[in-house]
Amino acid sequence: MTIKTRMIIVGVIAPLVIGAAGIIAILLALPRLPDPIATHWGPSGQPDDFASPVSSMVFIAALIVGYSALSFALARLIRGSNATQRMILAMAPAIATLIAVSGAGSALSQQGLRDGHDAPSIFPTLLLALGLAIVAGVGGWFALPAAAAVVPAAHADLPVMNLGAQERAAWLQRIEPSRAVGTFAIGGLAVVIVGGGVLMGLTAPTGIFVAWVTGMVLIGVVVVSALFWTVRIDAKGMEVRSVLGVPRFIIPSADVDSATPTDVVALRDFGGYGIRGFGKRVGVILRSGEAIEVTRKDGRVFIVTVPQSRQGAALLNAVAARA
Amino acid sequence: MYISIDAASSVPLFEQLVTAIREQVMGGELEAGDRLPAGRELAASLDINVHTVLRAYQVLRDEGFIGLRRGRGAVVADSARDYSRLSLDIDRVVAEAKRLELSPGALNALIRKAYE
Predict the structure, then answer these.
(1) 20 to 30 A from A31, CA-CA: which of A93, A209, A254, A283?
(2) Is the peptide bond before A247 cis (omega within 30 degrees of 0)?
(3) Confidence of residue A317 (pLDDT cuts 50, 70, 90)
């Protein structure tokens, strides 16, 4: 079964089947249901909104078809697989279960009642729906592949730098996000910090204000450390280090199987920017475009978006051959 | 930035560094305002003494290619100009010298004399 098929089954077919089952259950019970039925419950467990059973079925169908369409688009759009995408797709059966079980369950619990106002509390149904949704989500998660199948680059295509026997080389690059992404991240952070700070300073007690400022500074540090990095390739191997020193990724030259210059599209291939990926395929992705893809001898893959990737990959291959 | 040195060469290491970085400034791969790696970092990468790197940086500063500022490290100087015409002229002079089978040392002496 291909990755695409599995994505379609988990993200589209499973939720549609679950939704259909919920609707069929309501249909079968339809003769014994009051009209209107209770469709919404207040915090005390008393029903506070009512609608016809048919509108309940339409509601279930619309939500589930909508989410399935989204997962279908996602499955078509994205070429590999990554954690973000896996999460969105695994959510599809979970959300479908939550909607179908709570919708159908609440309707079925009103079987035989004359009036929807007498409907029992929604809480037991909701609890059951949540439990089943978690099971469905976890099942969906594990039904999806952990990472994209990596097509190993043909070794003939690998650029390898010609180094003399006594030659030592170092390749260093600073990497940062494109202006648009950087502006968005830092500008957004500034707006939140300044705007929130003013708001908090005016309204919140001092203790909360201080805690909030501390939290914001920490978030600022994390954002900056995720946006600005240096990449170094030398005889020791490759080091990709955040401007603050941590986090950093080190691949000793002896662990390098191959390094290939490649091209990435940040949103399509990794679902965003920063440290991305999961399991065997991890990337420091700051922009779309040139990148070096390093395959380690144990099969794990590390990708970093960096200019002059061909030169960097060539040097890494050369030092790996020597190691 | 890519820098390679040859430990077997008779040219001193710091001079190899100077040449490599100067070439990149003149070739436009390094632009005014670009930061060079910290001396310690470059030294560790190339497995050479940090003083060798710092000496190279000092030479480059004396030549006007980089500025050395406390805290910011070595930065390609604004005064670094467009050397593309000079590079072309040098290529031409070297080609002509090779055609005449002039040694590098002799060409060097001629240029030095003309300069002074």
Answers:
(1) A93
(2) yes
(3) very high
Mean pLDDT of all residues belonging to chain A: 84
Contact by Cβ (8 Å): A154, A196: no
Q: Per the structure block, which two tokens stand in for A102?
A: 């709570």
Determine, for residues B8 and A165 on separate chains, whether the beta-carbon distance falls below 8 Å: yes
In tens, the pLDDT along A37-49 reads: 888 887 777 888 8
With a cut of 50, say whether residue A149 has pLDDT above it: no
Torsion of CA A72, A78, A81, A82, to 10 degrees: -100
- What is each CA distance from B20 to A58, B24, B35, in whole angstroms? 71, 6, 15
CB contacts, 8 Å: A308 with chain B: 2
Integer Cα distance of B36 and B18 in angstroms: 12
Cα distance between residue A109 and residue A56, in whole Å: 14
Q: How far apart are the first and last CA of chain A?
A: 39
Contact B1 A168 (CB under 8 A): no
* Residue A139 neighbours by CB under 8 Å, 6+ apart: A93
- Chain B residues whose C-beta is within 8 A of a chain A C-beta are 1-9, 35, 37, 41-42, 45-48
Axis-axis angle for helices A14-29, A53-77 (nearest 10):
170
Residue pointed to by tokens 């390898």: A160
Half-sphere exposure of B98 (CA within 13 A, CB side): 6
Q: Is B11 helix (H, G, I), strand (E, B) or coil?
A: coil
pLDDT band at A252 (very low <50, low <70, confident <90, very high): very high
A162 CA: distance to closest CA in chain B (Å): 11
Q: Using a cut of 0.80, tell me whether the model's pTM lies above it.
A: no
Q: What are phi and psi of A257, to 5 degrees?
A: -85, -50
Residue with tokens 């695409």: A4
Q: Do A61 and A137 form a contact (C-beta atoms < 8 A)?
A: no
A170, closest residue in chain B (CA to CA): B3
Helix (H, G, I), strand (E, B) or coil at A274: strand
